[in-house]
Amino acid sequence: MRGLRWVTLPEDERNAFLGDGGTGVLSFGAGEGEPPRSLPVSYGYAAEIEQFYFKLSFPPASSKDEVIDNPVSFVVFGPVSSEAEDEKESVEGSDRAERENGHQWKSVVATGRLEELTDLPSESAAVQGLWAVDIPGFEVFEKPREDVEFQDFCLDPESITGRKEAI
Questions:
Q1: SS3 readout for the chain
Q2: Which structural domain range is residue 130 located in?
Q3: How does pLDDT run across 36-76, given as a tens digit for each residue?
Q4: What pTM does this model have?
Q5: Domain tally, the chain
Q6: Which Pfam families match (predicted)?
Q7: Any idea what the CATH number is for the domain that residue 74 is in?
């Protein structure tokens, strides 16, 4: 069995992998000795300015106020397979059977702090960016989505890195 090898994901591949939006895990830093608080979330991504956008909902009894101003880490991970990669594999003679499910994995990690957009004027660049992305909606709440209150946030990352499996 080969060891896992990875290489840096070039910016153009990173942006293609993130697309206009999808799903990932947003983790809020917690107090010393405490595990981070992590949430699966939908996101929107504006590649031209490298910003992520979120519509988050916090139940009334949640600990949102304790963590919302803390540093965050946002992770998107997944297997990727495309016709171009399949062609590259056949040319290079890669053995697909050696890779899980025949897919190459990619991941992106962004860190920084969230900025709440709710009170910003509609002319602000951050709000305009939110309107330009497509944040997928999922039915994961105990009541209809239209009855759930959401707050808009932006992550302008202090750092953003991507990796992919070396083939």
A1: CCCCCEEECCHHHHHHHHCCEEEEEEEECCCCCCCCEEEEEEEEEECCCCEEEEEECCCCCCCHHHHCCCCEEEEEEEEECCHHHHHHHHHHCCCHHHCHHHCEEEEEEEEECEEECCCCCCCCHHHHHHHHCCCCCCCCCCCCHHHCCCEEEEECCCEEEEEEECC
A2: 6-165
A3: 989 888 999 999 899 999 988 877 777 666 788 899 999 99
A4: 0.75
A5: 1
A6: Pyridox_ox_2
A7: 2.30.110.10
